[in-house]
User: Fold this.
Amino acid sequence: MRVRGLSSDKIEIRSIEEQQLERIHKYQNGELRQELSEFLEYNFPWAPMSINQIKAKIDEFLKEERNLLFGIWSKENEFIGLAYYIASWDTWSPFFSVIIWPEYRRKGYGSEATRLILEAAFNQSIGHAVSVLVPEWNLAGIAFLESQDFKRAGTQRRTGIIDGKFYDGFFFDILRDEYLSRHSRGVDP
Assistant:
């Protein structure tokens, strides 16, 4: 079912169903282990997860009333990534994240998913700022957020560890008026 605001000429955002768990499992047990472990709030990013563990983490995440988890599909009906939106802590300042599978990156899918989520957040909810946390090692993610006009808002020190070394997480946000003024000029976010 198409929901107003969650589809475009390029992608559609839908709910995750059982059949997508295998794809998530493949990436968490492979090249996206670190990213998906963080995404699923799995405290052992070095360890593979079973499909049942992934399902349990998703179920746990969705128990929170204002947590949303989405799948991202291309217009060719390919499952190309995940997104979440968290407003359970503060509905005025929700938090979101997008992961696009590696073979679909740099094709505009992440930008389009971000645009759709920001449109919903700022035009269909009370959010006045949308935030993202990106690990310092994710240089492509940092560059992406900056290209979308997110501003660096702070640092969470020692948010994780890789190869025995701590890394920091950088908070980025975009305010409602920043997004809407850019959007009203006809510039896509």
Observations:
- Residues 185-189 have pLDDT under 50 and may be disordered.
- The radius of gyration is 16 Å.
- Strands lie at 11-14, 67-74, 79-86, 95-100, 129-135, 151-162, 165-175.
